[in-house]
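Chapter summary example.
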Amino acid sequence: MFQPSQDQRLAAIYAMLSTWDREADRFRAAATAALRGETPSSLVVAAVEEAHDGLIGLLDQMDRALAELAPGSSEFAQMLRAQTMALGLLDSIGTSLDRLDRYVALDVAAPRRIAHEPVLTAAE
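The structure predicted for these 124 residues follows.
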């Protein structure tokens, strides 16, 4: 996974949050459409799950980073602000995921292999 340098950490976090914020709008629209009866694409559901897992990972990294920072530093306050944004996004994306999960079809079993050899009869 990409690990930005110490001085680029906050910029990288805000860039990821900005991307997930735009994606959250798309996920909310898909969840609303699912409530109206449209079947969500498995690709959208996979993207929601990926964003959800990514946010959980980011929050874990932010917790570790906060433990290393001095409480009075400006980066500490900015990191807390980013953490608050991430928690809000996690809640929003989690709600969309809950709504979309209800409408996902079960996995289809893999197809069975069909033998293409000719059937031999006893007379042959």
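To summarize the output: The longest helix spans residues 74-101.
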